[in-house]
Design a protein that fits this description.
Elements (H helix, E strand, L loop, with lengths): L1 H13 L1 H9 L1 H6 L4 H30 L1
Length: 66
């Protein structure tokens, strides 16, 4: 989970401006030369990986507690 948290933090800090522009105005992001679709899919992939990692972590903790 620490690795996923570090990856999320690094992704958001490096691409903060691009994510902000593409989230609120994808037309402007495309005009400025960003790839809004690629940023969207990268963010969704990162979100999916974080969700799966969190479920695995919570599942392991619940099994040990049982």
């Amino acid at each position: 989970m620490g690795g996923l948290a570090a990856l999320n933090f690094l992704f958001v800090t490096v691409l903060f401006k691009e994510l902000k522009v593409s989230t609120f105005d994808s037309g402007l992001a495309a005009t400025l030369g960003f790839a809004p679709a690629a940023l969207h899919y990268a963010l969704m992939t990162l979100l999916s990986s974080s969700t799966v990692g969190a479920f695995q972590s919570v599942g392991a903790v619940l099994i040990v507690a049982l």
